[in-house]
């Protein structure tokens, strides 16, 4: 045996059994701690990976919604096709632009003869195309009766959503459920070879309201309705929630009635959101007669749902303020109200803002209570005030996800991105406000 081995044996003999047990226990505990840390790191990594995969999938599916294909048509505003004699506003409003559009298209494709083929050709273009050529003539009345001109007017119109999906490689001819047949693919190829098709950024997605046609549908109406609904929710839930928290923490006597109130507030935080929708339908609409599908009703319903969260978070923040702050304020002669609003509330405001933004974020993603009060209705017009008919982004996403048109899949993902962006802006705003109060 070497000297090192002899020394190790002596050390081992000199150690007591208790020391050996403690050493073995420490080794086991260190191994368990390492395994726990590894499990924690794996859990965090898995969470980040799943979030990244989800966001990547949404962004990938949403990309086709942000660009759109337009086609250049040679439109002849012939008097016989329009069925009008002059370009006065009244005549132009009654002009037959659909016939003008059809005849102009058929002239560009002289080889298309059959009635069925012509109908199939006309389906390549958006149903909004006739209104596009109408707007062109309204803006430029000198184009009237273009047979007298050397060349017809060049007007850019949208392609139909099925053709747009075909050009984006979302679907191909022959796929199950494909809506572009072989002949239409040939016509689209002809337009492409003539450099008549152009891909543009889809600005109408942000400027249009909802539509039955995917190529015309936008989020402006739902986005505006969401802002109006959230403003009503904030205006009602924040002051009421903070006032209730201040009263319960600073002024309310500790007895069985306040205990009952506290229990009910905690229970309301766990009530399913659809129950608040039923309450809004039964009381706010049927009894008080407020309009259905209006942001004011949606804001009231979401305020009822958000109040428990704000009250609980606000009470916790007020309770966390050190008692020495209250004692110091009262010691220099401040009243109870001056102490509460001048010292306690400012120190508790960061926590109150955190609770408020959590409650509003929860309300922002709610769909079930708004379905009960009629905000699921198909609404094209953009609301201008809290009493106009409106919908919100979560409901709009729900409606588009349920639509059979394939182009609405990209619109749904794009609307989700808009909703996430709105939530991100809300969180950033709350963080800045909270930081200001912390200073």
Explain the layout of strands and helices.
Elements: H1 3-14, H2 17-62, E1 67-75, H3 79-82, H4 89-93, H5 97-108, H6 115-122, H7 129-139, E2 153-158, H8 161-167, H9 182-193, E3 197-201, H10 204-207, H11 220-251, H12 256-268, H13 273-285, H14 295-319, H15 323-331, H16 336-364, H17 368-372, H18 393-401, H19 407-438
Antiparallel strand pairs: 1-2, 1-3
Helix pairs in contact: 2-19, 5-7, 11-14, 11-16, 13-14, 14-16, 15-16, 16-19, 18-19
Describe the structure using short key phrases.
439 residues, mainly alpha, MetI-like fold, three-stranded antiparallel beta sheet, elongated
Describe the structure in your own words.
This protein is mainly α and 439 residues long. The chain is 66% helix and 5% strand. The chain folds into three domains: 3-62; 67-207, no CATH class; 220-438, MetI-like (MetI-like fold), CATH 1.10.3720. It has helices at 3-14, 17-62, 79-82, 89-93, 97-108, 115-122, 129-139, 161-167, 182-193, 204-207, 220-251, 256-268, 273-285, 295-319, 323-331, 336-364, 368-372, 393-401, 407-438; strands spanning 67-75, 153-158, 197-201. Strands 2-1-3 form a three-stranded antiparallel β-sheet. The longest helix is centred in the first third of the chain and has 46 residues, at 17-62. The protein starts with a helix and ends with a helix. The mean pLDDT is 85.
């Amino acid at each position: 045996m070497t000297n090192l081995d002899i020394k190790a044996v002596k050390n081992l003999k000199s150690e007591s059994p208790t020391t050996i047990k403690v050493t073995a226990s420490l080794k086991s505990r260190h191994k368990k701690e390492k395994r726990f840390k590894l499990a924690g790191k794996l859990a965090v990594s898995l969470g980040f990976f799943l979030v990244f995969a989800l966001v990547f999938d949404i962004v990938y599916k949403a990309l086709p919604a942000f660009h759109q294909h337009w086609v250049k048509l040679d439109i002849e505003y012939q008097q016989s096709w329009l069925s009008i004699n002059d370009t006065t506003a009244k005549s132009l409003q009654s002009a037959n632009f659909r016939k003008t559009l059809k005849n102009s298209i058929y002239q560009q494709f002289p080889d298309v003869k059959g009635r069925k083929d012509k109908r199939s050709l006309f389906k390549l273009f958006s149903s909004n195309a006739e209104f596009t050529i109408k707007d062109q003539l309204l803006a430029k009345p000198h184009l009237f009766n273009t047979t007298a001109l050397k060349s017809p007017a060049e007007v850019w119109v949208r392609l139909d959503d099925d053709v747009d999906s075909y050009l984006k490689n979302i679907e191909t001819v022959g796929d199950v459920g494909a809506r572009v047949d072989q002949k239409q693919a040939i016509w689209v190829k002809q337009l492409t070879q003539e450099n008549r098709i152009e891909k543009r950024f889809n600005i109408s997605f942000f400027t249009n309201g909802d539509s039955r046609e995917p190529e015309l549908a936008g989020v402006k109406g739902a986005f505006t309705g969401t802002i109006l609904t959230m403003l009503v929710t904030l205006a009602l839930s924040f002051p009421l929630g903070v006032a209730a928290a201040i009263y319960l923490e600073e002024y309310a006597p500790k007895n069985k009635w306040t205990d009952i109130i506290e229990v009910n507030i905690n229970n309301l935080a766990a009530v399913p959101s659809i129950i608040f929708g039923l309450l809004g339908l039964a009381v706010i609409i049927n009894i008080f007669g407020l309009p259905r599908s209006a942001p004011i009703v949606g804001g009231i319903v979401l305020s009822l749902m958000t109040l428990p969260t704000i009250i609980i978070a606000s009470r916790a923040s007020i309770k966390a303020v050190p008692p020495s702050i209250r004692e110091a304020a009262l010691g220099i002669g401040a009243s109870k109200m001056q102490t509460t609003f001048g010292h306690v509330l400012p120190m508790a405001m960061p926590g109150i803002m955190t609770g408020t933004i959590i409650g509003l974020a929860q309300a922002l993603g709610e769909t079930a209570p708004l379905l009960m009060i009629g905000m699921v209705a198909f609404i094209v017009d953009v609301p201008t005030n809290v009493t106009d008919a409106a919908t919100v982004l979560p409901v709009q996403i729900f409606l588009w996800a349920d639509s059979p048109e394939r182009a609405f899949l990209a619109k749904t993902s794009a609307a989700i991105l808009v909703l996430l962006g709105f939530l991100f802006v809300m969180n950033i705003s709350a963080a800045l406000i909270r930081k200001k109060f912390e200073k």
